[in-house]
Amino acid sequence: MAEGTANKPVELDAEKPVDVDATQENTTPCNRKGRKLKSRVWREMTREVSPTGEVRATCIYCKQVFNANSGNGTSHLNRHMKKCPLRFNHDIKNFCIAGSPSNTGVHSMSLLNPNVNLDEIRRAICVYVVAGSHPFTTCEEAGFRFMTSVMCPQYTNVSRHTLKRDALKYYNEERRQIEDDLQKAPGRICFTTDNWRSDHTHDEYMCITAHWVDCDWKLQKRIIKFAALSPPFDGISLADEITFCLGQWKIAHKVFSFRVDNASYNDSMINSLRTHFMRKHVLVSNGDFFHMRCSAHIINLVVQAGLNLIDSVVVKIRSVVKHLSHSIPKRKKFYEVAHSTYGLNTTKKLRGDTCIRWNSTYLMLDRYLYFKDVLDNFVSKDKDIKVFNLSSEEWKKVNELHKFLKVFYDVTNSFSASNTPTANVYFHGVWKIHKKLNDVYNSPSNFLYDTVSVMHEKFNKYWSEYNLVLSCAAVLDPRFKLERVEYCYEKLYGEIYAKEMIETVKTTIFELYKEYKDVFGESSRSVRNTSNHDHALGVNGEMEDDGDYAAFLSKKRKIDADKSELELYLEEKNMDLNKDMNVLLYWKKQSERFSCLSCLARDILTVPVSTVPSESAFSMGKKLIKSMEEFSFITVY
């Protein structure tokens, strides 16, 4: 050390680290008795006093030295602990092995995480037990407690009674949140109901789902009731259950529509509900749009009627697929030939079908056509299935049937979407099915004629008239509007009848708009006309002084100001029909221009087309609860 500096005191800055080597020989341990150090920082810092009386703190990880006089506090020491890189590395090591053996003779693993949220861990354990249908005693099992002690030593296990109380507490918190969201919904709420039956106890259950568009114009849905029903299972009793449920959630005044399946008691249930809500004056258009049938269920009925008369060519396909699925050597050879000789993607596999899901028949045909060349070669050489080889005429039938079922398959998928509106695609979907049925029905020579005749009869029973409110939903899609609806009607019924039907749709939507205008009012004229300000620019971009043009603009704006939001919207150019768009986002952007019309669009677009999710849309069987595991997917509030 340089002369003259050996005995010079070291100046310490509270925030600045100190060079340990420069001060080490002047340091003596702090043996002075004083107040007990309570700050957690002293668990990871040593405290020493120099001969000059300066108190210093040394980080046990990086050995940096800081001023620790009582007047400086410990905030600067805590800040260092949060960013000390060697402390971070030390914590990672602590995530590995703590060498003390457990009572089981196995070395325990101690995971030390200073930032752990114990409340979140407790909530996660509760969700795990409830969502997985595990018994509450799970939290008291020795293996479970050992696992939590290894994963988070800081967590203190709770008893099964505490876990039950936690489950009820978290449930009530979630329920209050959903109740708040429902009551804050800016528009009306649509409901779907469907019934389930327990395969073991044969108890009947009712499921009620609420659908609404939130303040951010995002489609939301929640199951608000899933409970066992008590006899009698008639429409009036079910209506009482529903009104009681809506009363509990305090949303009876927001009802827009109910969509139900084709159960026999639903007609009396809907009539009872309509009468109840009409007395309270809460329904739109005197309840004309209150009741709607599940479209996916109707499609199932139509397809099921036709599949019962399916052609024998499908029986041959079924036999080949079944034979290959039961013979491992043949199946392996088939896919080897498909990959090496024909260059096909063998991650796709041949599929069989099942009698309760009609889409399985479509998917079976789809895969069979994909492997057409391989099957022609392979089946013709196998003596066991050679008899099932398809002729060129039969392949044409398969292709025809595949195209026919594809229409139903695509429409059902579009109707069963859960995160996007389906009301606006209803009209176009039903029209595609109707047109396909008519095309085959008007061709008696088609091999599907007998099948389609039965399907056509079933279709006319349920969809002889398109649902008016959902036809209005198509009008409120900027890609369709009235022109597309008129075009579809004309293709089906001819020009004269199409004009009558489009006039009915037009009258309906204008009456509905008038009802909403009486409640919400219209946006100001200045807002509506912001997009219609035309400017007469000269060659150099300067305004022309044209008195005639100014008069023309004044007259035009006066005419536009007298028009309603609905009239202005319908006069605007249609968007590209093939454009993939978020129709709710469109109306969110237009809500300032069309304040009243956007409220109407929000409520109509909320209407769900189907009562079932996509995974159940193709099923032709009754909805069954076969086990608690199958029941656990339902989130009820």
From TrEMBL:
<keyword id="KW-0238">DNA-binding</keyword>
<dbReference type="GO" id="GO:0046983">
    <property type="term" value="F:protein dimerization activity"/>
</dbReference>
<dbReference type="GO" id="GO:0003677">
    <property type="term" value="F:DNA binding"/>
</dbReference>
<dbReference type="InterPro" id="IPR025525">
    <property type="entry name" value="hAT-like_transposase_RNase-H"/>
</dbReference>
<dbReference type="Pfam" id="PF05699">
    <property type="entry name" value="Dimer_Tnp_hAT"/>
</dbReference>
<dbReference type="InterPro" id="IPR052035">
    <property type="entry name" value="ZnF_BED_domain_contain"/>
</dbReference>
<dbReference type="Pfam" id="PF14372">
    <property type="entry name" value="hAT-like_RNase-H"/>
</dbReference>
<protein>
    <recommendedName>
        <fullName>BED-type domain-containing protein</fullName>
    </recommendedName>
</protein>
<dbReference type="InterPro" id="IPR012337">
    <property type="entry name" value="RNaseH-like_sf"/>
</dbReference>
<dbReference type="InterPro" id="IPR008906">
    <property type="entry name" value="HATC_C_dom"/>
</dbReference>
<feature type="domain" description="hAT-like transposase RNase-H fold">
    <location>
        <begin position="416"/>
        <end position="516"/>
    </location>
</feature>
<dbReference type="InterPro" id="IPR036236">
    <property type="entry name" value="Znf_C2H2_sf"/>
</dbReference>
<feature type="domain" description="HAT C-terminal dimerisation">
    <location>
        <begin position="565"/>
        <end position="625"/>
    </location>
</feature>
